Predict the structure.
Amino acid sequence: MMAALAALAGCGGPGPIKGRLAAPRDLEAADYRADGIPGSFGDTSPIDWGPMAPDRYPVHGIDASRFQGRIDWSRARAAGVSFAWLKATEGGDRVDPGIEANMGAARAAGVAVGLYHFYYFCRTAREQAEWFIAHAPRHPGDLPPVLDMEWNHASRTCPRRPSPARVKADIRTFSALVTRHFGTAPVIYTTPDFYADNDLGSLNTADIWLRSVAAHPSEIYPDERWTFWQYSGTGVVPGVGGVVDLDTFAGSAGDWVTWLLRRRQP
């Protein structure tokens, strides 16, 4: 969901190229109540979570891009959104306008904010790290940055699938450069197929954020210790237009505070 539409974009040409903010249809969370997710949220495509449901975790957030438009962060915060990662860049020539529209208002509402980069395999890791650094504003106290690593299934211009060794080398290069700039290592976001295809379980990362929208991560990534879980790509949250990705933190509310103090941008 993070990149379903992003993958249709190119990865070359003169930059920066910015998209337009969407005007998504308003949905009411009360109309899409679903068992297993926080009571103030909804889901347009719910599943039966059973005992390992997302609502057993106390700290929840969203990730968003221009496709969610301008978000009412006060409403989102009141509904239980504690953190948000906003798409900043893609490849080596894309800047998402959602960061300008949303990051300041999110901080003002008391939502912990971080920015993410969607990786394209037609640019080097150094090029993409430098692009992200140039267009993702550093802000003391923000969440660490995120590197979004997944296959670009729908891309017209960048369908490459490098070897697992190349993928992991790119992650290390990007992470080293971004860590040096932001003062904290990036969180790595990934999907089940990308994780398996590239043996990311062998990658020693500071924190990993796993997509798993049909089962608890322990079922899909049985040996992985995760920090964040993206449990829906069809969520409905007050203040957010259309559907949005829903995420949760692995620990308690106290663990969340401790993690923030340790991992926030200096």
